[in-house]
Specification:
Strand content: 25-35%
Strand order of the largest sheet: 2-3-1-4
Number of strands: 8
Order of helices and strands: EHEEHEHEHEEHE
Shape: elongated
CATH topology of the largest domain: Alpha-Beta Plaits
CATH superfamily of the largest domain: BMC (bacterial microcompartment) domain
Oligomer: single chain
Number of helices: 5
Helix content: 25-40%
CATH architecture of the largest domain: 2-Layer Sandwich
Number of domains: 2
Largest sheet: 4 strands, antiparallel
Amino acid sequence: MSKNLCIGFLEYISIGKGIEAADLISKNTEINILLSAPNCPGRYQILFDGGVGAVKEAVELAKGIADFNFLDSLIIPRIDDKVISALYSPDVSSITDTIGVFETMTMTSSIEGADIMVKTSDVQIVELRLGKGLAGKSYVIITGTVQSVQSAMDAALESVKDRGVLISSVVIPSFNPELIRHLI
């Protein structure tokens, strides 16, 4: 993915409305759908990229047909490549001494938090889990020094604090390496 592209993410509480929105935006805007699939518990997610204008147009178009089935949306210009990589392949090999776990009620807020964390602090994403097997919740696991993980978590918390979506945010220094195999 080019650093000049931006991503859009749409989250629906209806699978039918999500599929309808994916069809609508793929036919009527200049975006590229990266993921369009149902998720737990009966939600639907659409991840796409394109130019900023095209992504904004797609989000507005999708919101226009959503009625009460729309849950959340997100637009991130110049998303960090680490976030997209984490969606497709968790990486426990990057775990250092400290981990942070940022858990939210929506997929959009976890993506937003992950992007903010890697842009504001020297941390690596271990995993970005969106909804599957989590009843729609999502989480991000990051690693780095205690200071960088705490700084990253603080920045992510600031971004979601007024939305009521945070479930937990923990920093675990001196993480037991025997537990790494159980993380993902």
